[in-house]
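Two proteins follow. First one:
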Amino acid sequence: MITVVEYTEAQKQIAKLLLEKPMTVEELRERLSFSASEINEALKGLIKLRLIERDSEGKYSLIKYVKDKFTEVEENFKAKFIIEAASPDEQSLKKQVELLESRIKLEKMKITFFEKGEIIKNGDVYSTFFDLEAYFSEFRDVVNFIVNYGPSSVELLEPSEFKLNASQAQDLLNLIVSAVHYYITLILDTRFKEYLENLKKQQKR
């Protein structure tokens, strides 16, 4: 079942204040009853989880997708996803799963079902999965979730049918093209680096 990422009380209160506006450490200290060290540790933890960011003026703010999470989600599109994760290192997989879970729960959607599988070992690889259902306001949000998390299975549960105009379709196509281009470039770059490494090894022989 779900393993919830626990936030400290300081982190929770900082997040509430940052919903109002970006703030400096000094401004947060004026509004909170925690010690300076507790606030600093809380800020470091939130940055590590990629929930807040610090600008050039020293002000902290919630990143966009966290802000969007607090806006109401219209229940227009319901989808079911299976997201798989694997790693040769069990501890590394546990960290990846924890970060992935915390990010998923901050997406702009209304989760109606969430289950996390046990970590199992198959040969030299450890693996697990997420099974979730959620509502989205727009179909673009469904596609964007797929692009960001690469689920192995997707099922659109609601509605049974809907229409897209040419502009909406073009927007979705550009979103998919951008993701495909990024991953192809990444794969080609990795393969080219492997080719150069093999070439160097052959030259040393």
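Second one, unrelated to the first:
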Amino acid sequence: MDSSDPDIVFDEQGVCNHCHHHDRRVAQIPAFAPDARQQLESVALRIKSSRRGEYDSIMGLSGGVDSSYVAYLAHRLGLRPLAVHFDNGWNSEVAVRNIENIVKKLGFELQTYVIDWPEFRDLQRSFFRAHVIDIEMLTDHAIFAALYRLAEQNRIRYVLSGTNFATESVMPRSWLHMKADLRNIKAIQKRYGTVKLRSFPTMSIWKLAYYQYVRGIRSVSLLNYIQYNKTHAIRELSEQVGWQYYGGKHYESTFTKFYQAYILPTKFGVDKRRCHLSNLVLNGEISRDAALAELQKPLYDDSELAADRAYVLKKLGIAPDDFEIYLRTPGVPHSDYPSDESIARRLIELTRRLRSA
């Protein structure tokens, strides 16, 4: 990590706040407790006993390594989750094959939630016009909204999540925005969009609170119950379910690859490899020298970049000249538009205090 994170702070030993944050969070997860195995079995039993219909849980399945390993772990634990794939129009062929292999070999039922493409395209174009950094919050928001909605419809109390502290604790706050900020999404769409949001899955922070505290739906990060190692997970998935790697974190989506490997570094000066590699260093999977060497490699092969750029711009209906203007225009903070982030963070902190009391 470096000063591309404007909030980075180093102590007198030269250790940054991200390392301290990682150490604190990892020390709190069940995976490193003496009774880690018992805790994992206990949460699996709790999920199984909550079953009131055909499924005991629900999980998003993107074809990426984290969600795929959650599916694999759920199978090993004997859970019966409903697998849901959110198709936003940007799936890579590798991701599609991974999903097909997982549900077939693990015996899970798959439900594909297909987004209304003209509506979603208009939303993405609005976020381009707004010049905010987290264009990907649209997909993340819709995934969570769809999962909770389907959980309620199917009387499911547990959402299996691929989030984990071991490989995701390092992430500067300025590099993204709160995914549940529906007010921010609606404000940007109202200002720059050309269509009304009719079918796009949404969930306000108040709706999330309803799901969690009234309907009793809980998110469970299964990967925090094991000593999760991404390198080992990739090897195991490849051997057991024929899973195939796609080249980078979240590169199972063509748009995400172009966004992370080209838009972010070109427009915002952000190379997300820094945080992804930092997490792997802190998790003991690679050395710091190996990570620094990886950062010296180009983000994109020239011919691959040209092909992806042409594909993304054509699919979004953005003229090349307009895209160049977009890249040269300074970014705008999400907070320049109406937002519920400050309220949500206070609610999260209050919930954390109540649970620890």
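SUMMARY FIELD: Residues 17-356 form one domain. The CA atoms of residues 94 and 279 lie 24 Å apart.
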